[in-house]
Design goal:
single chain; Quinone Oxidoreductase, Chain A, domain 1
Length: 117
């Protein structure tokens, strides 16, 4: 059992983001079959994130819920397939992106193509 923890922005009830969001130190997610773990380095804030926190989005939160619906980062642990490799940069769309590490289904992660500077 890993003792790895991470910072995360969490809410335990729906409502105004300014009132319900709290920084917490949470256990890091564990990779399960067909998933990847991502060291998150960028997390946008969109109107959908606010709707999710308020409980007005098509995806309903599961409490306690880590906020955020998408992000970008680097593969920390890869799925059972060879689609992703550790260290590879990816973007992903999956609830729980406002944390240091996010676990998501491999199908929700997308490799970054091309190279920039």
């Amino acid at each position: 059992m890993s003792d790895l923890t991470m910072p995360a922005l969490v809410f335990g009830a729906t409502g105004d983001p300014l009132e319900v969001l709290q920084w917490e130190e949470r256990p890091a997610p564990r990779r399960v079959s067909g998933s990847v773990l991502i060291d998150v380095i960028a997390r946008p804030i969109h109107p959908a994130d606010h709707a999710f926190i308020r409980g007005r989005y098509r995806i309903q939160p599961q409490f306690p819920q880590i906020a955020g619906l998408e992000g970008a980062g680097v593969i920390r642990e890869s799925s059972d397939s060879e689609e992703f490799t550790v260290g590879q940069r990816v973007a992903f769309r999956w609830p729980g992106s406002w944390a240091g590490i996010s676990g998501c289904a491999g199908r929700a992660a997308h490799r970054r193509s091309g190279r920039r500077g």
